[in-house]
Amino acid sequence: MEKQSNSNNFYEVYEVFSRRTFKSDMQHQFSLLAPNQEMAFVMAQENFMRREPVVDIWVVKRSDIRKLQPEERASISRLDNKDYRLTKGYGYLKKKWRQYEQQVLDEKEIMSWGGVQRGTTDRK
Fold first, then answer.
1. Disulfide check for 34: which of 9, 21, 39, 59 has CB 3.0–4.6 Å away?
2. Model-level pTM?
3. Which domain of life is it from (predicted)?
4. 34 and 53 Cβ atoms separated by less than 8 Å
5. pLDDT digits (tens, 9 = 90+) for 10-30
6. CATH of range 12-65; options 3.30.1330.90, 3.10.20.520, 4.10.230.10, 3.40.50.720
């Protein structure tokens, strides 16, 4: 987005963030147009805080928010595979464990074969 100067446009875009409880994270709610920061704050309070229970509100001029440029995104991409750090990387273990359990013979199954008795060995 291009920066808009105050001389060309009377209004600036502001982003409104709020937090419902002291332990919750700030969440983006909406954008608004206002001539200055004080008016933007009043408008955010009137349009949002009277409808939703909040404990804190942030009003930030959009031009003051910096985002990553495409060339910066490429520089922070992961250089190696770290799937082992993500829980989804272990999803295959449940299936593998189930297969292992199906292959294990338990004592009841062995005894049901009939030819084998407990405590004796078959010598030939």
1. 39
2. 0.52
3. Bacteria
4. no
5. 899 999 999 989 999 999 999
6. 3.10.20.520
